[in-house]
């Protein structure tokens, strides 16, 4: 698909620069996994152990999400994992400036990864280009070690001469930029870096819901009960809710080999009992929604 082709080859050192969490793991490469380019009939998350805890939450994390135990806590502490703050950065690129933007953005974000330890351990989770939706937009998600990490990192980034040089090279190619601070849902934390083995990294779908004010806890409860129907057939990336910037907004991101696989996986979810109820319950709590199809950039740790 021509629109999915990347303008630039990845930097030769980009893979080696990825600063991962200490528990980050990488998926098998297609060389060792001949079926990596096709979505399995049923995607089965680990039921226990290290990977099960990493991708789907430990028993403690699941207990922390029990609404009956935590109904008296504030919503963000009830539904959010709380350990990390994720920063969603959206760049709207001026038409005709894509190649220049990619060059400057690659330099900025690979430098950020390389110098993570000097920037309060900020990490790049992923970088994507929109191909269906607001075409010309690029989305980047950073991970900070709580709000203290965000505060410290913001100051250090502003003082880093190399990063500021690359940022200044990006700005002339942008129409606008938006930043949103988010928390992970307990039941759908951000994935660590991985190479899926899908051609060009496959496609990523970001689904965004603008909720009615005050309905986050109810939305999370309904969605958490039904999300198993999705996890059987698709690789999750993460689920988030806005805390600073746009409020009452939820995002969840999924990865597929291609759009045909997406259609198949979504159809199979409807065969699982309870999924229709989840859709009905969450829809009535939502003011509006949209879906965005994205492809990873050459330097994205998630591919």
TrEMBL record:
<dbReference type="GO" id="GO:0000423">
    <property type="term" value="P:mitophagy"/>
</dbReference>
<protein>
    <recommendedName>
        <fullName>NIPSNAP domain-containing protein</fullName>
    </recommendedName>
</protein>
<feature type="domain" description="NIPSNAP">
    <location>
        <begin position="204"/>
        <end position="301"/>
    </location>
</feature>
<comment type="similarity">
    <text>Belongs to the NipSnap family.</text>
</comment>
<dbReference type="InterPro" id="IPR051557">
    <property type="entry name" value="NipSnap_domain"/>
</dbReference>
<dbReference type="Pfam" id="PF07978">
    <property type="entry name" value="NIPSNAP"/>
</dbReference>
<dbReference type="InterPro" id="IPR011008">
    <property type="entry name" value="Dimeric_a/b-barrel"/>
</dbReference>
<dbReference type="InterPro" id="IPR012577">
    <property type="entry name" value="NIPSNAP"/>
</dbReference>
<dbReference type="GO" id="GO:0005739">
    <property type="term" value="C:mitochondrion"/>
</dbReference>
